[in-house]
Amino acid sequence: QVQLVESGGGLVKPGGTLRLSCAASGLTLNEYAVGWFRQAPGKEREGLSCISGPEGSTYYSGSVKGRVTLSRDNAKNMVYLQMNNLKPEDTAMYYCRIDNSWGQGTQVTVSS
């Protein structure tokens, strides 16, 4: 059974940084693509970034490209999303996804 647990969210000021973590269990992480998504109140869930399985190729959406870095630690079964220069519009619940499994999310709030 695949389980995903996100952490690392919080309240930061504009321009601040956060590193989100996604702990995966029940699978061999490097065999799967992993995606990060977010959903703000009243908005649709938005795909932000993903990393492919064995190849480890990464993709970033235009809304976060240049401010976000996705990385993966296969030994620890962890995926990270480093977010820099955060903006108020980045405020949302952030989720990781592997295959059809989602975590419970971690809240990111960017406010002065």
SSE topology sketch:
Layout: E1 3-7, E2 10-12, E3 18-25, E4 34-39, E5 46-51, E6 58-60, E7 68-73, E8 78-83, E9 92-98, E10 101-102, E11 106-110
Parallel strand pairs: 2-11
Antiparallel strand pairs: 1-3, 3-8, 4-5, 4-9, 5-6, 7-8, 9-10, 9-11
Would you kindly provide a written description of the structure presented here, covering whatever features stand out?
The protein is an all-beta fold and 112 residues long. The protein has no helices and eleven strands. It has strands at residues 3-7, 10-12, 18-25, 34-39, 46-51, 58-60, 68-73, 78-83, 92-98, 101-102, 106-110. The strands form two sheets. Strands 2, 4, 5, 6, 9, 10 and 11 form a seven-stranded mixed sheet that branches. A four-stranded antiparallel sheet has the order 1-3-8-7, with no helix packed on it. A hairpin with a 4-residue loop joins strand 7 and strand 8. The chain is globular, with a radius of gyration of 13 Å.
What is the radius of gyration? 13 Å
Q: What is the distance, rounded to the nearest whole angstrom, between the alpha carbons of the first and last residues?
A: 40 Å
Low-confidence stretches: none
| DSSP strand count | 11
Taken as a percent bin, the fraction of beta residues is over 45%
Helix content: under 10%
Q: Quick check: average pLDDT?
A: 95
